Amino acid sequence: MVAEGTFAAIERILSAHLKPGDRVAVEDPGCIGVLDLVRAMGLHPVGVTVDEDGIDPQMLSAVLGDGVEAAIVTPRAQNPTGAALTSSRKADLREVLAEFPQVLVIEDDYAGPVTGHPYHTLSDDRERWAVVRSVSKSLGPDLRLAIVAGDRITISRAEGRQALGPGWVSWIIQRLVVELWRDSEAQQAIVAAAEVYRNRVHALIEALKTHGIAARGRSGLSVWIPAAEETPVMRALFQSGWAVAAGELFRLSSPPGIRVTTAVLSEEDAPHLARDIAKAFERSARL
């Protein structure tokens, strides 16, 4: 089916199988929009830790064994940590999920081809599954369109829910997206953009290393930097002319940190930002 963006799709997929009060496994730290959506639907988010390879298999097994009804997983460009599934982590997660065939698995592949990382799916042969891929990151934020694949029951219920609201996604937008997918120059631009985003993330992580600061950002548009305290660091960076996001917005129970969006951070500016982050950390430690 076609939906008007990632969150519209996820809302309809969750509605297809869950009721208020049900529990949903989410990444911790994880996407603000997903956390807000789950709560707004009257569902209960259950955090699962994330490392560079993606969601943690042992913790996922524990929460699923405790009766969680659905899991939302970002296969690459995880927001805010930049985590991306590897083939090894995919195998481990698929082994866990095989023990819980009734659990609904939603893959939020929101950034698609601009992530700079291959796609690994968890949804093969599942009873309840959906993969959502938006075009807003790869083609433009005004193109509010997401493609959704899933099992027959999930898709039919989601389409029925959509019919009660907007009915369909603009045919003008759909045709425009198809033409951009067919256009060789547009596809070359997407490949080039993925390389630029990858280089920007790498530049910041390497610059932070020179100051002894560890950071995560395997794929996508974000870098996650653990921090003992978030507010003093954010305040110091704001005074230096930088705006970063507080990790508190993304966290349930995971340790604090800050998220830096690198989409518009040039490689030349990365050392300056890294220097100011190091100063902010030092200043925070003295408080």
Q: What does this protein look like?
A:
The protein is α/β, with parallel strands linked by helices and 287 residues long. The chain has nine helices and eleven strands. The protein has helices at 6-17, 32-40, 57-65, 87-98, 152-163, 171-182, 184-209, 231-239, 270-286, and strands at 2-3, 23-28, 44-51, 54-55, 70-73, 104-108, 129-134, 146-150, 222-226, 245-246, 257-261. Strands 1-8-7-6-5-2-3-4 form an eight-stranded mixed beta sheet, sandwiched between helices. A three-stranded antiparallel beta sheet has the order 9-11-10, with helices on one face. Strand 2 (23-28), helix 2 (32-40) and strand 3 (44-51) form a beta-alpha-beta unit. The protein starts with a strand and ends with a helix.
